[in-house]
Amino acid sequence: MKGNVRTLFVVGTAGHIDHGKSALVKALTGIDPDRLEEEKRRGMTIDLGFAHFDLPSGRRAGIVDVPGHERLIKNMLAGATGIDLVLLVIAADEGVMPQTREHLDILRFLPVRAGIVVLNKIDLVEDPSWLALVKEDVVALVAGTFLEGSPIVEVSAKTGKGISALVQTMDQMLDRIPARQVDEPVRLPVDRAFTMAGFGTIVTGTLWSGRIAVGDTLELLPQGTQVRVRGVQSHGQTVPAGIAGSRVAVNLAGIEKNEIERGNVLVAPGVFRPTDLMDVRIRLLAGAPALPHLARIRLYLGSDEAIGRLSLLDRPRLEAGGSAVAQVRLETSVVAATGDPFVIRRFSPMITAGGGEVINAHPPRRRRGAASIAAIEQASVTGPHARVEIAVLDAGRQGTGVEELVAIVSASRAQVDEAVATLTAAGQLAVIRGHLFHRKTFDAVAGAIRREVDAFHNDQPWRVGIPKEDLKLKAFGSGDNRLYAHVLAEIVASGAVQEVGEFVRRSGYAPVSSQQELTIREHIVRMLSEGRFAPPAREELARAAEDGVAFDRMFRALRDERTIVEIAPGIVFHHDVLEEIKQAVAAEIAAHGSITVAGLRDRLGTSRKYALTVLEYFDTIKVTRRVGDTRVLVKHPPASAEKTSLES
Ligand SMILES: Nc1nc2c(ncn2[C@@H]2O[C@H](COP(=O)(O)OP(=O)(O)O)[C@@H](O)[C@H]2O)c(=O)[nH]1
Ligand SMILES: [Mg+2]
């Protein structure tokens, strides 16, 4: 967008019902924003109206006309999102009225920072002292808000008086409006969806960020539907691409109108994830009733409305005019990112209570207390680096991708990439196959692994180490596998622990057994060695050992280290004997093409039971393969389970 002067702006109306907002839009643009039949019949704006016109400077302004009725605040909010300039319309004959105040209250929580107070119906006021009184009220009303010091322009939408002066003022105000983020991911809060003959599905809205071009593939959230852009219009013209800060109408392929509703968001694919839990900073309006912990609220974000509860983390209630960091738990998911403004209304009665901004759109569920407040506060005051770090920390053992981060921390892709690179170089973050994890998460998992290994050695000192499966379950649970494998590899590399076959042990750990246990151990090994191809069963060995507990320990230790192999429940061979049988089987098959159970029985001089069990075992470990009544060798047998190495 270098050298590109912004030419498209969006202006919104605001103000009490019947003060002439729609009439003013018509006077400015020639377009009647009350497009619904019911609106024309009742002479009242029900839903949002849209118009556009060219300012003397050549800028083109889109106008969103909102309803003033108190029951239609929800529609007003959907229309006010994303506007650059507001026209707060006040009828000069009536002065400041309830929705004048409420609309202004709402606007204070939105990012719009420029506005003009339009004193309309000036033709109805003859008494100059009345007008002076109304102006005094207006000055008092806007004091302390973004409209303080803004121009107050007197007009009559009916006679046209003052309209050209208003247009001049608008043009001047727009000089100071900054450009929008065209390079950011697309984000279009949908305020209308309809079908048009010959086109199909169309959605409209004020484009918050990015550019929407014909041919783009986008995603509609929270449904997660992929859509394709067939055409784009902006401020009354067909364009190759709609850009941030303008009104756009997008013709979509891949979705029906009835699958879309106001509040949905059209976004760049894979960037945003709907959320129903957010860390926020919230402020209550000075005149609003206090909100207790877990108060039911309506939250307005973008063009969406969601019902939820406000979880106050550090106090029983939020008083009028007060501010706090808190969590919002929603009943439906919204699309949100750090820094997004929102408005809150009470669930019932429906009055505007306050608003705030999103600090973290994907936080963990937080307990009440100072620690949670501190964690949220820290995230809210820091730059993209710290926000990236905190977001990755919050992602914990699940980790997060870079695309998700862009949305979560609401920074540009370049900023996030830069932060990730710096933090990774500093060792704060680790990227494991495209997934980011925090060093603290790493350290916590590494610590847990060490603790579990130590605990296991204490508990069962006679065993070579903890089975890998058990270790993962105990030290890690159900996090991302990539993380676990990586951390384990790292602490193995550091020399703290060792992998020994299917086990993990503290480096150099040697199993410890009592003298009695060692005697039993030798006994088991000798009996199996001597038993050769017809070894004693497990229970026979146990009987001979007399001490059941000591026997179980030694039996298990020998099995762990694969000195002995239990090929079927209770049937045990000495490892070396089993290897000998394997050679015999291979030799027999080499000589005769295959081997049968009877063949092996005869060759070993053992019983049919042993021969059969051994061959079935070889089948399961894929040494042999059964073909009818015979066995052949598996083509490329994997290396047979090696005897666990106990040398370090
Ligand atoms: N006399 C006079 N009437 C006006 C003026 N502007 C609007 N009206 C009338 O006021 C009523 C409400 O206007 P409308 O634009 O629908 O108000 P909105 O509810 O704020 O959109 C209509 O009957 C308009 O004709 C004005 O400048 N002078
Ligand atoms: Mg109206």
Tell me about this structure:
This protein is α+β, with helices and mostly antiparallel strands. It is built from 19 helices and 34 strands. The strands form 9 sheets. Strands 7, 8, 9, 11, 12, 13, 15 and 16 form an 8-stranded antiparallel β-sheet that branches. A 6-stranded mixed β-sheet has the order 2-3-1-4-5-6. A 6-stranded antiparallel barrel has the order 17-22-20-19-23-24. A hairpin with a 2-residue loop joins strand 19 and strand 20. Helix 11 (439-459) crosses helix 12, helix 11 (439-459) crosses helix 13 and helix 14 (515-531) crosses helix 16. The protein is elongated. Residues 644-648 have low confidence and may be disordered. Bound molecules: guanosine-5'-diphosphate and magnesium ion (MG).
Low-confidence sequence ranges:
644-648
Helix percent band: 25-40%
User: What is the approximate shape?
Assistant: elongated
Q: Using DSSP, what is the number of strands?
A: 34
Largest sheet: 8 strands, antiparallel
Overall average pLDDT: 90
Which key terms come to mind for this protein?
648 residues; 8-stranded antiparallel sheet; 6-stranded mixed sheet; 19 helices; 28% strand; disordered C terminus; binds guanosine-5'-diphosphate
SSE order and pairing:
Elements: E1 8-14, H1 21-29, H2 37-42, E2 49-54, E3 60-65, H3 73-80, E4 85-91, H4 98-108, E5 114-120, H5 128-142, E6 152-154, H6 163-174, E7 187-189, E8 192-196, E9 200-206, E10 211-213, E11 217-221, E12 225-234, E13 237-239, E14 241-243, E15 247-253, E16 265-267, E17 275-284, E18 291-292, E19 295-301, E20 304-312, E21 317-318, E22 323-334, E23 341-346, E24 352-360, H7 370-381, H8 384-395, H9 402-409, H10 413-425, E25 429-432, E26 435-438, H11 439-459, E27 466-467, H12 468-475, H13 481-493, E28 497-500, E29 503-506, H14 515-531, H15 538-545, H16 548-560, E30 564-568, E31 571-574, H17 575-592, E32 595-596, H18 597-604, H19 608-620, E33 624-627, E34 630-633
Parallel strand pairs: 1-3, 1-4, 4-5, 5-6
Antiparallel strand pairs: 2-3, 7-16, 8-9, 9-15, 10-14, 11-12, 11-16, 12-13, 12-15, 17-22, 17-24, 18-21, 19-20, 19-23, 20-22, 23-24, 25-26, 27-29, 28-29, 30-31, 32-34, 33-34
Helix pairs in contact: 8-10, 9-10, 11-12, 11-13, 14-16, 15-16, 18-19
Guanosine-5'-diphosphate binds next to helix 1.
